Amino acid sequence: MTIKEAQQRVDEWIKTYGVRYFNELTNMAILTEEVGELARVMSRKYGEQSFKEGENQDPSEEMADILWVLICLANQTGVDLTEALEQSFKKKTQRDKDRHRNNEKLR
After folding, report:
1. pLDDT (tens digit, 9 = 90+) per residue, 26-51?
2. pTM of the full predicted structure?
3. Element spanning 49, H or E
4. DSSP string over 6-24
5. Which CA distances in Å does 35 have to 16, 30, 45, 92?
6. How far, in Å, CA of 60 to CA of 57, rounded?
């Protein structure tokens, strides 16, 4: 699935099953909540904390939830995520093309 297809499918799902998009501020709060849930899984799976009994241990589920809400926000605000990602690659390449290779801390 391309990013464009994902944006279309989320939009179709919202219009078919979700009634309407939550407003942008609600979705921003939901996105923040989902990032926190991913942080919890990561801290337990790769950090020093342990999982509680019955707690979700799958970061992919949380990552997918984050992507879903991010796509909702993009759709609501008219952002073409494919184009935005292309522009991000250009910006990072122009800005950082030598920076990381020359960083002694990364060797």
Report:
1. 999 999 999 999 999 999 999 999 99
2. 0.90
3. none
4. HHHHHHHHIIIIISSPPPH
5. 26, 9, 15, 23
6. 9
